[in-house]
Write a structure and sequence with these properties.
Blueprint lengths: L4 E5 L2 E3 L2 E4 L3 E2 L4 H8 L4 E2 L4 E7 L5 E5 L10 E4 H5 L8 H11 L6 E6 L1
Parallel strand pairs: 3-6
Antiparallel strand pairs: 1-4, 1-9, 2-3, 5-8, 6-7, 8-9
Length: 115
């Protein structure tokens, strides 16, 4: 079994309203995952919503996004920390994702959705 990552940059984070309508599905890269895991993480706010919310029957819907499919709480990192990873990313898709992350304001929260 492999572990994949989707990045959910916060589109809105203002006075209790926070959500991501953006889903950046990364190519699998375990060396990159190790680098990401070294970045300080913080729990997403309880009001965080995305298109990766889950109903009790397991169906994916738009809604509160608090846990990943493994039952672990979702955390976020800052875009500035992600863009500063010192690793030569070999995947063109992941390079494009890092270019996207790199133009976000550095204090933008980016949820890590491991699946």
């Amino acid at each position: 079994m492999g572990v994949d990552l989707r990045l959910l940059p916060f589109d809105v984070d203002h006075e209790g309203l926070c959500f991501s309508h953006t889903i950046l599905s990364c190519d699998r890269d375990y060396d990159l995952w190790k680098s990401i895991e070294s970045i300080p993480e913080h729990p997403v706010p309880v009001s965080f919503t995305s298109f990766l919310g889950e109903r009790k029957d397991g169906e994916t819907i738009y809604g509160y996004t608090k846990i990943d499919p493994y039952g672990k709480p979702i955390h976020y990192v800052l875009a500035g920390d992600l863009s500063n990873i010192d690793y030569a990313i070999p995947s063109r898709k992941n390079k494009a994702i890092w270019a996207y992350i790199g133009v976000l304001p550095p204090d933008t929260k980016v949820a890590l959705y491991w699946h």
